[in-house]
Amino acid sequence: MKFRYAMVCSSNQNRSMEAHSLLQRQGFHVSSYGTGAHVKLPGPSIREPNVYDFGTPYKQMFDDLRRKDPELYKRNGILPMLKRNSGVKVAPQRWQDNAADGSFDVVFSFEEKVFDIVIEDLHNRDQLLMKSVLVINLEVKDNHEEAATGAKLALDLCQEIEAAESWEESIDDIIAGFEKQQRRKLLYSISFY
């Protein structure tokens, strides 16, 4: 594969990790991140989320939730998701702290708010390399079924970008073709490292 990809959602749990897992299995150079202040997972009620710091291992979250209420977290898909995540990487990482990871060619976000945070972060960094980075937002609801669908759509787009002679010259056509075929509107922007 020619390019380095980053998948970004709010907590680096569901949407970004589903896409990370799928792209990794397909041989892509991919990483994933979250943009939130903390990692939040559903709890027993909407007012009682489970909150962890970025860097807390997925295995530790899995053990914690299994101890709290194994039936609830199995039924709502959180335990299987954490098990999948721990097979991809050790712990959720925060986008804003990824400067040491180098630069990406393409960054996918799965929510407009996350897209805005990524763009703002890139604009506020020192752009020393003057290397372009394509940032695409593919709006995906934060549930397991939609995350799986979103991951497949992200894979399709990544394959199109990889196949292009130069994404800089063909991105408008790639996006237009995708939007027409999938009937989904994408946001995209070009920024720099």
TrEMBL record:
Assigned keywords, A-Z: Hydrolase, mRNA processing, Nucleus, Protein phosphatase
Reaction catalysis annotation: O-phospho-L-seryl-[protein] + H2O = L-seryl-[protein] + phosphate; O-phospho-L-threonyl-[protein] + H2O = L-threonyl-[protein] + phosphate
Signal peptide segment: none
GO molecular function: RNA polymerase II CTD heptapeptide repeat phosphatase activity
Main location, first listed in the record: nucleus
EC number from the UniProt entry: 3.1.3.16
Source domain of life: Eukaryota
UniProt record similarity statement: Belongs to the SSU72 phosphatase family.
Annotated protein name in UniProt: RNA polymerase II subunit A C-terminal domain phosphatase SSU72
Organism of this sequence: Cephalotus follicularis (Albany pitcher plant)
